[in-house]
Amino acid sequence: MRVVLNMKKQETSIQFLDQFLPPGAFEHVAPFFQSHIIHLTLTHERKSVMGDYRHPWRANPHHRISVNATLNPYSFLVTLLHELAHMRTYIHFQNRVQPHGKEWKEEFRKILVDFIGKRLFPPDVEKALIAYLHNPAASTCTDPHLYKALYKYDKRKSGHQLVESFKIKACFATDDGQIFRMEEKMRTRYRCKSLHSGKMYLFQGIMEVRAVENEVAERQPFYR
Description:
alpha+beta, 26% helix, six-stranded antiparallel β-sheet, SH3 type barrels
């Protein structure tokens, strides 16, 4: 087995990966690394992406996969399988297909189905994954049912929760410090008012934000 696992620029054995996976998952993941040289990098939290795949090229002739090390074990496993599906799609089709087209979806289904029914995931996550298999998306964040099932197992920051958990007129802050007030629940999103500008914005219910006390919100210029 030829694998490079790179975390903090230190190479180590693929066995190190076991501590990031659900119990029993390593033995099902390890065979993917037997036929190819894979540079697997575990990164610190990235807001915009949970994982990434880079195909081989002349200056770097190896498959490269990165996964956020801060993900909970179930999110980590789903993300790793997502990227391994990209690797297998590239091996079969190179750059002749769309990144998340039907070819990648089929590869992801083939991989993911082998991890279902083995008690690797909690029942709620497995149920969401089975539904997700019908039409895998480019990111688990775009499937609200799967995202919420996985989110339950995150180590959450103090005071943080999903937008959909706030009641009407409750206030929350985004990562950039802006404060919003929940105004209306729409069909798939939430209409919220910026207490900095007075403008209205639409938020996805699965966006993680920080709860804000009323006295803090009341000091904003457009609170009324």
